[in-house]
């Protein structure tokens, strides 16, 4: 009898995965109708949301990062707010503040006015143009799901995702994000220039009189259900071992080959992020379980912002992406 029940549970799980694959395929198609020429960026951004995490979009201005986040919010059925980070932005501009109000009877009381962080999808635009103090205001929100103002905790909406855009650090007026905050992002998505054909399509379709707008595909409830499904997907022992081998090999005290190359490596949160991301990628591509190919494909976006090279390695021309490629090639 127990075996029959297990088979029925497995059958229900497979049906749920197949239904989720169809819905996600429709959502991805709708997003790519608005954002074209950035297939990898769209996929990785969706993966971050399906994991219930946050993503850091890095690229020069003008590559549709802001439009991508706005499109994701509409298509996935999430309420969205945007914060334009500037050097004079204060933490209270993000979290909110208490104001003193006086009633008609003369009584005075403090009332909390929510900041823009109270949204299901928060777009932190050009996050590295704000001061480190303001950047850190997002730290508790991203990790704990609530913010504390004047000693009182305020819960954030569910789900809560931060998709932050960042300009390359070489540009004027940027502040590097602290390592503790970088680790809160499940992955870093590099947004590169489109190829010629994609840019040609951009020219033709975005300079018309009427701008194309995305349509909702998923609801909040559907998205939350799919996020739970991602965490229930089975992962084989070989994939688990591949994740552990990869992440641990990027730590200099555990891998002699990278001594003198990597200054500091990824922690256990990187392993957790890679495990979730592999599950989400498998689901997005219509598979019932992740494979080692998912580990290799997601190694760079999950690890690159969680490790740093030594000065000597940088002087020798090595890059973080190159080191990750070498390590992931061995799994």
TrEMBL record:
Highest taxon of source = Bacteria
Please name one Pfam family that this protein belongs to.
Answer: AAA_lid_2
Entry keyword set: ATP-binding, Nucleotide-binding
Cell wall biogenesis/degradation in keyword set:
no
InterPro entries, per the entry: ATPase_AAA-3, CbbQ/NirQ/NorQ/GpvN, ChlI/MoxR_AAA_lid, P-loop_NTPase
Q: Where is the ATPase AAA-3 domain?
A: 54-187
One example of the protein's molecular function in GO is: ATP binding
* Ranges for domain ChlI/MoxR AAA lid: 262-324
| Family classification | Belongs to the MoxR family.
* Name listed for the protein in its UniProt record: AAA family ATPase
Please name the source species: Acuticoccus sediminis
Which lineage ranks, top first, belong to the organism behind this chain? Bacteria, Pseudomonadati, Pseudomonadota, Alphaproteobacteria, Hyphomicrobiales
């Amino acid at each position: 009898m127990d075996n029959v029940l297990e088979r029925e549970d497995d059958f229900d799980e497979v049906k749920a995965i197949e239904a989720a694959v169809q819905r996600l395929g429709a959502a991805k198609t709708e997003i790519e109708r608005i954002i074209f020429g950035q297939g990898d960026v769209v996929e990785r951004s969706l993966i971050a949301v399906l994991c219930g995490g946050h993503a850091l979009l890095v690229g020069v201005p003008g590559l549709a990062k802001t439009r991508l986040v706005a499109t994701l919010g509409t298509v996935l059925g999430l309420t969205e707010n945007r914060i334009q980070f500037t050097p004079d932005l204060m933490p209270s501009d993000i979290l909110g503040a208490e104001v003193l109000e006086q009633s008609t009877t003369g009584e005075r009381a403090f009332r909390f006015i929510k900041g823009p962080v109270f949204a299901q999808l928060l777009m932190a635009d050009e996050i590295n143009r704000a001061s480190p103090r303001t950047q850190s205001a997002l730290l508790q929100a991203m990790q704990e799901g609530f913010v504390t103002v004047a000693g009182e905790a305020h819960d954030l909406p569910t789900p809560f995702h931060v998709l932050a855009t960042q300009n390359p650090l070489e540009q004027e007026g940027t502040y590097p994000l602290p390592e503790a905050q970088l680790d809160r992002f499940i992955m870093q998505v590099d947004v590169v220039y489109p190829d010629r054909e994609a840019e040609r399509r951009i020219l033709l379709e975005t300079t018309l009189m009427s701008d194309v707008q995305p349509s909702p595909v998923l609801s909040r409830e559907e998205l939350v259900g799919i996020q739970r499904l991602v965490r229930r997907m089975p992962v084989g022992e070989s994939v688990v071992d591949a994740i552990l081998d990869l992440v641990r090999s990027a730590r200099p005290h555990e891998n002699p080959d990278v001594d003198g190359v990597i200054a500091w490596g990824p922690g256990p949160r990187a392993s957790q992020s890679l495990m979730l991301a592999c599950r989400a990628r498998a689901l997005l591509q219509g598979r019932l379980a992740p494979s080692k190919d998912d580990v290799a494909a997601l190694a760079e976006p999950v690890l690159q912002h969680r490790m740093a090279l030594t000065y000597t390695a940088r002087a020798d021309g090595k890059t973080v992406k190159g080191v990750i490629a070498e390590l992931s090639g061995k799994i």
